[in-house]
């Protein structure tokens, strides 16, 4: 390949979202996208536009965010990964950098995404790691939360769990995984995988599941909430700090 020929790369990115105003480039606030783009400009000596698989909101973390970009650099994938990690701040790490076929698009080629939400259910709040969990003092009814979570699997209209002020062409999504698990020491995780997500959808679902766990919403009414398409019937939005984008899936090569 000619050194000046255009190349497309895929990045797999881990970041602590605590110090960012989300993924997307902002006019004045710090964003993950702009932080990486600045490092790419140093590496490639080009103004590179980074395309993310999707936005994460302020305070949300990622273990496997995916982004793509095109460049005419002579550097290979390994050199790009190592160079970026030498330039990026400690709260962003490039876990992988892979050459991709021309036309690969980190956003439009996504087939599914998986998120995980962390809850710490114990009387005393943590001092360490508090920026990565939602601490809930009162004991949660885990079986009830599991019953409610199971109701979300399948193809449904998730309008009731969409953040206000974010109209889409449609609000139907297909959820393949929706599971509450206990991992010991009062730690709970909620995993959800879907073909796509609405704004605040995961955090609104988690907020609803917690209200089920606290006895404020009966688990049996979750299907009714889905069918109602009424945001006011679902629970409050869970804090961003407990949410992680775990991975993003694409079609086989």
Write the layout of secondary structure elements.
Blueprint: E1 7-15, H1 32-44, E2 51-52, E3 61-71, H2 77-87, E4 92-100, E5 112-121, E6 134-136, H3 142-150, E7 154-157, E8 172-184, E9 187-194, H4 201-213, H5 222-228, E10 243-249
Parallel strand pairs: 3-10, 5-6
Antiparallel strand pairs: 1-3, 1-4, 2-3, 5-9, 5-10, 7-8, 8-9
Helix pairs in contact: 1-2, 3-4
Could you give the order of the helices and strands? Answer: EHEEHEEEHEEEHHE
Structural class, from helix and strand content? alpha+beta
The CATH architecture name of the largest domain reads: 2-Layer Sandwich
Q: What's the helical proportion of residues?
A: 10-25%
CATH superfamily of the largest domain: Pseudouridine synthase I, catalytic domain, C-terminal subdomain
Chain-averaged pLDDT: 94
* CATH overall fold name of the largest domain: Alpha-Beta Plaits
Radius of gyration over alpha carbons? 20 Å
How much of the polypeptide forms β-strand, as a percent range?
25-35%
Low-confidence stretches: none
CA(first)-CA(last) distance: 20 Å
């Amino acid at each position: 390949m000619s050194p000046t020929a255009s190349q497309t790369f895929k990045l797999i990115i881990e970041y602590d979202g605590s110090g960012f105003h989300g993924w997307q480039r902002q006019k004045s606030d710090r964003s993950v996208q702009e932080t990486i783009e600045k490092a790419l400009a140093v590496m490639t000596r080009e103004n590179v536009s980074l395309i993310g698989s999707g936005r994460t909101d302020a305070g949300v973390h990622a273990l496997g965010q995916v982004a793509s970009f095109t460049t005419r650099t002579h550097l290979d994938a390994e050199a790009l990964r190592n160079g970026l990690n030498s330039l990026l701040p400690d709260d962003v790490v490039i876990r992988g950098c892979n050459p991709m076929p021309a036309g690969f698009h980190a956003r439009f080629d996504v087939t599914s995404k998986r998120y995980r939400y962390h809850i710490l259910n114990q009387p005393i709040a943590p001092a360490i790691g508090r920026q990565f969990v939602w601490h809930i003092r009162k004991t949660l009814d885990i079986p009830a939360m599991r019953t409610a979570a199971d109701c979300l699997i399948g193809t449904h209209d998730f309008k009731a769990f969409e953040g206000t002020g974010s109209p889409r062409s449609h609000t139907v999504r297909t959820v393949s995984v929706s599971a509450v698990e206990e991992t010991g020491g009062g730690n709970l995780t909620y995993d959800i995988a879907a073909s796509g997500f609405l704004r605040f959808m995961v955090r609104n679902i988690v907020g609803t599941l917690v209200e089920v766990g606290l006895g404020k919403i009966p688990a049996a009414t979750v299907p009714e909430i889905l069918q109602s398409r009424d945001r006011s019937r679902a629970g409050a939005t869970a804090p961003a700090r407990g949410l992680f984008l775990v991975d993003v899936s694409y079609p086989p090569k």
